[in-house]
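Q: Is it fine to ask for two folds in a single conversation?
A: Yes, each is treated on its own. Send the first.
Q: Here.
A: Result:
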Amino acid sequence: MSRDLARRTLVAYDVPDDKRRLRLAKCLETYGDRVQYSVFVIDCSPAKLARLSDDIEEIIRSEEDSVLLCDLGLVMSLSDKVFRYIGRSRDVTDDEAIVL
């Protein structure tokens, strides 16, 4: 895959069940960076994002849980202005690293 196709996705979730929430968080940690308690930033190819979506669907109960996937755009075109923190900030993996 060309790095030109890598996209940054913001993933936020609301899962009331502790066990499913923990499973989901562990899954997301394998794909990207936790930037808030229930918010992750993931840089990956479209194919990897499709696998992530499948993994999420296997974990959650769609009638009870909610997961938001927000496409922030191509990694190569992102600037420092995409994220703005007030208070303590969290590190996001350097844009040179990519999950394939």
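Q: Second one now.
A: Result:
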Amino acid sequence: MSVPVAPRRWPFLGHTPSMLRKRFEFTSSLRDRGEIVKVYLGPKPAYFVTSPRLVHRVLVTEGAHFRKGAMFDKFRPYLGEGLLLSDGAFHRRQRRLIQPAFHRDRIARYAETMAAAAEELVAPWRPGEVRVVDEDAQSLAVTVVGRALFSTAMGERVIEEVRRSVFVVIKQGMVRALSPNFVEKLPVPGNRRFDEATARMRAVVLEVIASWRAGGVDHGDLLSTLLLAQDEETGAGMTDQQTYDEVLTLLTAGIETTALALAWVFHEIGRHPEVERRLHAEVDEVLGGRPVTFADLPRLVWTARVVNEVLRTYPIWILMRRATEEVVLDGVRLAPGTEVIVSPHALHFDPRSFDDPGRFDPDRWSPERAATVPRGAFVPFGAGARQCVGNVFAQTELVIAVATVAARWRLVPVPDEPVRVRFTSAPYPGRMPMTAVPRHP
């Protein structure tokens, strides 16, 4: 079968607005060439899948025949065999061991941590104060994930180190992932900061693991769940290294997604008065001035739709898979080792799946309209067996944080200070100043 071939130029690097437009235009334009398109990563061919139907096959129905692709190989030196990168039987074992940490009853307990952290965030705000919202969102995400993982006094030391180092690891790690191999060996400041940050985080996380081993007490946190987990077949638990890999995976994946989404939520609320009005009406009706609880979530319908629309509007640019055995997609034979690329960004802005995709419209997530979205068209957390294990945790945290802030404050954009997007694989806002205005003076 003849496969359409895209232009050879693949715009991986560059963060200027014009370069970002070229990235998005390139990946979005591929849908006009067909559902599966050959592209070149330098001299190496790969296949770009553009339709929700084939994306669902790659991620779900044929997911067992793929592993994480080339983009993720460069994360292995510091994420090891954590759930994000492991494969095959080992990945299935680790997911079985970790999954209980994200059951509904555990999420309900974490919700208390989420609400308390959000209340602490807004408590010192003052009327008319300009908040740098992206920094506030990062701080909250670190606090929530850190406290969920480490509930002991020693855990506070880990949280402070995570606050200091995790975004260096995330950002510089993505630069490495999208750069030629030689870049990570250059004696440049970014590489030094990355190496120092990973070394500090490794030392403090292994220290708290050793402390837990010595005490052996279940503190009800994620770390206890990881260290107490035992394989049903062998009775074996995780080694210190395996636990470390999973902890670092949960820290990096759990913090980045939530921090970015939360910042963009308040950006979009500030730009859309009607969205803000409906949000405030809902939190006033549901909460009545009291703190949000896990039991309130089913009634925070509009808040959840706003969160979903932000997850659609600000997804990662691409993700990759590598075939582990021959797979045939619509007559195209993919040999073992073939790289397959999916663009959540292109999928989320495909007008065939979403009416007027450039418009911020939380109502597209009403039950009637959401039911028309094809499988594979909305993948903010991936899909299938490789779907992010913490997706419900993240969505719960976002709804609780948004409701907590919106119940007490409006965040108003600062005039003449436009927010720009800085993109590696995920959409980072440039500095996002917003003025805190009390809703109930």
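Q: Anything structural to flag on that second result?
A: Two points. The chain has a mean pLDDT of 88. The CA atoms of residues 174 and 362 lie 30 Å apart.
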